[in-house]
Amino acid sequence: MIIAADSLQLPHLNYAALAPMLILFGGAAVGVLVEAFAGRGRRYPVQVVVGLASLVAALVMVIREAGVRELTAGGAIAVDGPALFLQGTLAVLGIVALLLVAERSLEPGGPFVAAAAVTAGTEADRAQAQRRDAGTEVYPLLLFALGGMMLFVSANDLLTMFVALEVFSLPLYLMCGLARRRRLLSQEAALKYFLLGAFASAFFLFGIALLYGYAALPASANQAGRSGITFADIHAAIQDSTNSPFLLYTGLAMVAIGLLFKAAAVPFHVWTPDVYQGAPTPITAFMASCTKVAAFGGLLRVLYVAFERAAWDFRIVIGVIAVITMLVGSILAVTQTDIKRLLAYSSIANAGYLLVGVLAVGTRDGLSSTLFYLVAYGFTVIASFGVVTIVRDADGEATHLSRWAGLGRRSPGYAGMFTFLLLAFAGIPLTSGFTGKFAVFGAAFNAGQVWLVIFGVVTSMILAFPYLRVVVLMWLSEPGENTPSVSIPGALTSAALFIGALATLLLGVAPQPLLDLTDRAAEFIR
Amino acid sequence: MTFPYLSVLTVAPAVGAAVVAALPRTKPGLAKTVALVWSLAVFALTVAMYVAFKVNGPHFQFRESYPWIRAWGTRFTLEADGIALVMLALIALLVPLVILASWHDADDRRLTDPAQVPAREPGRRSVPAYFALLLALESTMIGVFAAADVFLFYVFFEVMLVPMYFLIGSYGGARRQYAAVKFFLYSLVGGLLMLAAVIGLWVVGRTSLGHATFDWAQLTHVSMSPTTERWLFLGFFLAFAIKAPFFPFHTWLPDAGGAAPAGAAALLVGVLDKVGTFGILRYCLPLFPNASRYFAPLGLALALVGIVYGALLAVGQNDLKRLVSYTSIAHFGFIGIGIFAFTTQAGTGAVLYMVNHGLATGLLFLVVGMLVARRGSALVSDFGGAGKLVPSLAGVFLIAGLASLALPGTSPFVSEFLVLLGTFTVNKTVAVIATFGIILAAGYVLWMVQRTTQGALNPALEKIETMRRDISAREMAVVAPLIALILVLGFYPKPVLDVINPAVKATFTQVGKADPNPTVAQGGGK
């Protein structure tokens, strides 16, 4: 097929506004080259520096471009308030997660496997477990994932969004399987995540197809030049499309399934506990914070920008999902005996609270409070998984709750910090958990969703119990024979813990600056 | 600009807590001394504030207001009316006495039988932490009574749980873990219900007033529909009814009071629970006057049941601390009646009762603590004829008991009399039933005193070396001020009444209940 030269116009690209993503993808590509050409011993420092430098550079660019509000790349990418805010959030949380990932002083070689392809349980595997080095492919993977997430939260049409979804999902699947210890568990987690994630992607893709069928116009009627795939087109089509609304609702449902899967909302949550438990803990921290930011960023944009006019139709469905998410997450958290699974169920319940904020659709408060909650929760969850990485014994991390008995006596400092983080999860005032909950519940109440607030409050009560149980174990139980002590964390983990706990406190005591920021950012462009 | 009494009073104990917590664990004596001196300084400042309070001045005095979270209209606003003032004075008085009384409570548990003392890890329970927790508790208690911003009140209301939780859980008796968790969860349930109501009030207020605010004074002018008002009232009321505790939300108190160390129990029952009745007076009544009138019969009924039920259960108790806890449930019934009778006389009696109950039950708990520390058991049946070994302590115990049953000449009599008199003018049935509570009170108190200190000497007591030590100078310094106050206020309650009366009158005016004219000929007005 011959395309006339004048009919193909390159879309205008605002390179400065796209810079954060370009920097991360560039940094990731450099990381791949480093893997290929640098000597084994030199890779680690080079990769850490490349990773941190890219993230900091991306953050700087986000801040420099903070005032930009425009569609670029031919309408495929929206650079607006929520996109920039979430990109900045991803960069900051990514830096903190990278600090945890790069920690190598807790165990020889760090938490990542030296050669991921070696079959678990074999002689070769035992040999590589003794090695003092580790693979460094996790760094470029992390940058690819973050780049994909940034693209995901600013994608302005469903196809770009799908590409971004895959770009950040594939590295995540890989990273889940990279644990140095308990490799079978880790690989099982990776496979489970991959299979279920593939299903979710398929749903998402099929939903796109249906929505295209709904929104696209035949060429004869397409004076406005709608492509039928951007959010603005769907928005317009909901008003004037003559196609069957069945396409709209089924398409919306399928796209929502794809997004809610990443957000870990019930009933698309079953992967969460296994994956959170099996993945290397720094990766779990990364997923719990950054994937959540990306998933809710995407969900907000799709629901607010494309489907705002269908709000009356989806609100009740997503509302029910929010309620069962909160209920299932909080009730199952009560029965957990493993700290990582407990935090996984708590993360599911928190997805429910975020959905409460999302459901204040059409109000500025709804958007800004969800953005606030994402930041608040992200810092707290990274720090709490960070604490999990340092409670360890000779076999690695001691994640079974019975092992945490009496930790407060052995290591009062870190147990105190973890208690503070748990109180934040429980929503006690003077922590970011409280201000975040107040923001989303307030927004939902204001939007007339009182029933969601009531369920939110009820589940918060249930959820307080498992957190309290951990506090009781740490402080009020006698230390057992096999209570591990806390390993002295290296500078990187210490920095990550410090940042996470400090943010939890600051956002709880003085949330005003961040509230201002989210309020200024809380406007999508279409 | 006057001296910022309230903010200094709120912050100073918190600073003290930080200082004490930072002291080395190896120097417990230093920590105790610093905590005592610090709390005495706070007391001195409170006395100065009490003197500076203008008796016939404005309803609220010492107002301070600093901006906090602008986006939500939250301000750090503190002010005190007469009700809050007397409660602040009670707190500032009780805390140094409790510190003095708990001098050895946090030391390694001294069992009476040396053979039973197990080899413990040295410094198993940190002494500085205990006294730091007491000071932290004081800070939050002062904050909760001084707050004039609903959000700020809620923050203190919830944060107050944390130090008390650790006081019970780490330093309590046999069932401390269970009691601490039960205490925390019950309070948290109430707190979260209140959070939903706080958010609701805020949203309603924002619509009605046109701007977001949590300022108590402004929120009293919010107009809302009767249904909304009733729901919001219930949210606040349930939280306070759990805190107070009223029947049927009382089951946590005997567990918490029974398991807490005596000093913490004295603060728990003496002050912390008063937040419930104070909250009803300060928040439920003025903010939701119509709903308050609507639900007043419910409040009266719960209070009446509490009086009889608490008294009956108290009679059957064999554990001294649980017994005193049950008597408190009965006493809170009297306070509840005084509040919901809606006469200035009964209301003033109720507030005075809050103070006197703090003095009398605080004293009773501290004396019980002294007995328990000697005997190594809190069971009534483990005592018997103790008066023959420790005559002075038994005498103090008797005085505390008599004050608790409101013997004329002790200060609780004045308040009980005012409550009954004020109630009788509007509701004879309630007053008559409540009067039976006094008879029951005489029963359980006298029987308790008789079984522990009178009668034949329990031979087991004689073998216990510590049981031979009569009241020490330190313990005398604890009980003397309380006994003196109980007697002085029993004969001359005017200094307290003058402060309370205008505040109560103003509160009931906000509810729209003017006092009935005491026309003797008609036997009370309608």
Helix and strand sequence of chain B: HHEEHHHHHHHHHHHHHHHHHHH
Overall pLDDT confidence of chain A: 89
Rounded to an integer in angstroms, the radius of gyration calculated over CA atoms of chain A is 23 Å
Taken as a percent bin, the fraction of beta residues of chain B is under 5%
Tally of strands of chain A: 4
User: What's the total number of strands of chain B?
Assistant: 2
Strand order of the largest sheet of chain A: 1-2
**What is the residue-averaged pLDDT of chain B?**
86
Helix content percent band of chain A: over 70%
**Main β-sheet description of chain A:** 2 strands, antiparallel
Query: Order of helices and strands of chain A, N to C?
Result: HHEEHHHHHHHHHHHHEEHHHHHH
**Interface with most residues:** A-B, 36 and 33 residues
- Shape descriptor of chain B: globular
Helices of chain B, by number, come to 21
Rounded to the nearest angstrom, the radius of gyration of chain B is 22 Å
Low-confidence stretches of chain B: 110-123, 518-526
The unreliable regions of chain A are: none
Distance between the termini of chain B: 46 Å
Q: Helix- and strand-based class of chain A?
A: mainly alpha
Describe this structure in words.
The complex is a heterodimer of chains A (526) and B (526). Chain A has helices spanning 15-37, 40-64, 81-101, 123-130, 138-154, 158-176, 183-215, 231-240, 245-263, 271-278, 281-306, 311-334, 339-358, 364-390, 407-410, 412-426, 432-446, 450-476, 491-509, 512-521; strands at residues 70-72, 77-79, 392-393, 396-397. With 526 residues, chain A is mainly α. In chain A, the strands form two sheets. In chain A, strands 1-2 form a two-stranded antiparallel sheet. A two-stranded antiparallel ribbon of chain A has the order 3-4. In chain A, a hairpin with a 2-residue loop joins strand 3 and strand 4 (396-397). In chain A, helix 3 (81-101) runs antiparallel to helix 19 (491-509), helix 7 packs across helix 10 and helix 12 runs parallel beside helix 18 (450-476). Chain A is globular. The model of chain A has no long low-confidence stretch (mean pLDDT 89). With 526 residues, chain B is mainly alpha-helical. Chain B has helices at residues 5-22, 28-52, 82-101, 127-146, 150-159, 161-171, 176-209, 216-219, 226-243, 252-259, 262-272, 274-287, 289-315, 320-340, 344-375, 391-404, 411-424, 428-453, 459-463, 473-491, 494-511; strands at residues 61-69, 74-80. Chain B has a two-stranded antiparallel ribbon with strand order 1-2. In chain B, helix 15 runs antiparallel to helix 17 and helix 16 packs antiparallel against helix 18.
